[in-house]
Amino acid sequence: MKHNIMPDPNKIFPVPNTNTVTYVKPTIKNKNIIVGDFTYFSDTDFESHVTHHYDFYDDKLIIGKFCQIASGVNFVMNGANHQMNAVSTFPFYIFEGWEQEVPPLSELPLKGDTVIGNDVWIGQNATILSGVHIGDGAIIGMNSVVGSDVPPYTIVAGNPAKEIRKRFDDELIRLMLAFQWWNKSIEEINDLIPILSCSDLQKTKAKIIEIMKKN
Q1: pLDDT in tens, 156-192
Q2: What distances in angstroms separate CA 120 from CA 39, 48, 97, 135, one per listed residue?
Q3: pTM for the full model?
Q4: Cα–Cα distances in angstroms (integers) from residue 113 to residues 60, 67, 171, in the given order
Q5: From 3, 49, 52, 82, the catalytic residue
Q6: Is 82 a catalytic residue?
């Protein structure tokens, strides 16, 4: 059904009559947290769920578009990784009064930026550890602890999170990664909703092939 209200990625509370679901992007103040349009969090104050994110590490949390992040999800950044190549793991340098400068970053167990793709569903109370890359369309089970990369369109669960199965066959995964519906205009996505929400995956596959041939 057509209507005049267009989706607004800068609206903090996008669900009518509730303030318990937020679009993340318009709430972010930290320059090292980068979030795409329409990614939502089933809670408020998203940044409080990004922990151990110290400025001197300069690591980034990068999240794509249209991700669905349940309540209780936490992103644990590089500051949680203590130095393990010395006799003490105690991080004297982050506390007042101790005479230790921040060690050279080459001495610290940095795992790089944490990168979440597009259209990723992260279940309730999951924990994403530093440096993890989660591919487009992946699903993370509730209470999972994700410490290694997750391929696109893959379901993982557990502690540590392990692959349960691929969501689709290889051909449909390749098509979805090439099609990149999340990068299309709001008008185009509105028209694609019947395809994106169709449970007949063969029909979906055929329709996407048809659209891609036209373009």
Answers
A1: 999 999 999 999 999 999 999 999 999 999 999 999 9
A2: 9, 20, 43, 8
A3: 0.93
A4: 5, 18, 29
A5: 82
A6: yes
